[in-house]
Amino acid sequence: MPRRSFLARATLVMLVALTMTVSMCISSGLGKGDTAPDFTVTDVDGIEHSLEDFEDRVL
């Protein structure tokens, strides 16, 4: 019986995670051809890169 309970809970957790992932993808707000908002990230060497650095290039 404990195994059945574990499988039921694991299935429920997976369904909730899948539902949340799909809902976030659907509500991202950007459509095909829309301009992405500018953002900045730091790489492992500590160098900052922004989306603006890649302007007019296909990524």
Helix-residue proportion: 40-55%
- The topology string of helices and strands comes to HEE
Overall average residue pLDDT: 84
- Radius of gyration, rounded? 20 Å
Structural class: mainly alpha
Q: What fraction of residues sit in β-strands?
A: 5-15%
Distance between the termini: 52 Å
| Spatial arrangement of strands, main beta sheet | 1-2
* Oligomeric status: single chain
Shape: elongated
Let me know the number of strands. Answer: 2
For the largest beta-sheet, the strand count, sense and barrel status come to: 2 strands, antiparallel
Low-confidence stretches: none
Number of helices: 1
Describe, in short, the structure shown:
The protein has one helix spanning 2-26; strands at residues 40-42, 48-50.
What are the salient characteristics of this protein?
mainly alpha
Q: What topology does this entry show?
A:
Elements: H1 2-26, E1 40-42, E2 48-50
Antiparallel strand pairs: 1-2
Structure notes:
It is a single chain. The chain has 59 residues and is mostly helical. It is built from one helix and two strands; from the N terminus they run αββ. The protein has a domain at 1-27. The protein has a two-stranded antiparallel ribbon with strand order 1-2. It is elongated, with a radius of gyration of 20 Å.
